[in-house]
Amino acid sequence: MATSRRSGHSRETPFRSFRDGLPDLSRYDLLLAAIPLVFAVVLAVHAALGVPFRAAVATGALFSAVVVFDALFFNPPTGPDRPE
């Protein structure tokens, strides 16, 4: 079976084209995504290791509160500069 090369074939990896299709995520988008991710991780730990449910949820709430506190008070969002 003969194969042929296509002219103009791009040598880009599929990961580069996948990454180019994603929107630019800000720090705050990632922090918002981290909150449910933290709960998913602690609930997986609860299921896998038998950690008590209340302890797992309390740990998730504590880590999520730290994320929110960081986003609101340590690194608050800033708006565009407005002329006075």
Features:
84 residues, mainly alpha, 3 helices, 0% strand
SSE diagram, text form:
Elements: H1 14-21, H2 27-49, H3 53-74
Describe what you observe in this structure.
- The protein has 84 residues and is mostly helical.
- The protein has a domain of 49 residues.
- The chain has three helices and no strands.
- The longest helix is centred in the middle third of the chain and has 23 residues.
- The termini are far apart.
- The mean pLDDT is 81.
At a glance:
It contains three helices and no strands. With 84 residues, it is an all-alpha fold. The protein has a domain at 26-74.
The H-and-E topology, N to C, reads as HHH
Distance between the termini: 73 Å
Apparent shape: flat
Summarize model confidence as the mean pLDDT: 81
Beta-strand proportion: under 5%
Query: Uncertain runs with pLDDT below 50, 5 residues or more?
Result: none
How many strand segments? 0
Assign a percent range to the helix content: 55-70%
Rg over alpha carbons = 22 Å
Biggest beta-sheet profile: none
